[in-house]
Amino acid sequence: MRIVDASVVVPARDEGKRLERTLDSLAAQRFDGGLEVIVVATGAKTVRIARAHPTVDRVLADDRREGPGSARNRGAAVATGDVLLFTDADTVVPPSWVRRHCRHYATPEVVGVGGPLRPLENGLRHRACFRILSDWWYRACWPIGFVQQPGCNCSVRRRAFEAVGGFDDSLGYLEDTDLSLRLRREGTVAYDRTCPVDTSTRRQERVGYGRLCWTYLVGYLEYALPGLSPTREYF
What we know:
The structure is a single chain. Helices cover 40% and strands 19% of the residues. It is built from 9 helices and 10 strands. Helix 1 (17-27) links the parallel strand 1 (6-13) and strand 2 (35-42). The longest helix has 18 residues, at 124-141. The protein is globular.
């Protein structure tokens, strides 16, 4: 039986070429340990693409469409690695991505790792907004305890993930922030600014940066106030 040190879980809902690009980047990983790739796929075309790619070890067909938190939990449930890494089907990771995440777990206190996001698409507006919202924002929040591992660039020590119960799949969004904050009970959640990933700006193009920021601000308030929860309907 192959020894697996790290497992990558990719939720993919109705994706085509974007998923192929993500899987190609995972196939290029420079990682000395055992690595497995699990795709939780929704949609017949997505399932076919995932099953055809040589780097994928397991494909879970998921027609429930319950959101990324639920899909990530399904993938994590069958993963065998001591470190669980999560990225999305519209994201390209660098060849050192798995190695850079895993090096943090040599420190026993570390239970999770997150890194910045960069835009796949060109344009000054995208580069500037991503730098502010997906890097500087994290750098400012992390030291005061408001840790927010982005779902497409995060990893978790398996025992800590199981101890906190994984992602809360009842949340419509901010499920990655919620997991990060609960992980703090188990140990240190590290931010590695040298480990970025490139992700699609299609959501930003669709709704605009202003509306997206407002939605997340409202979501943070709903998350913080007792009895409220970020609404499922937005995404």
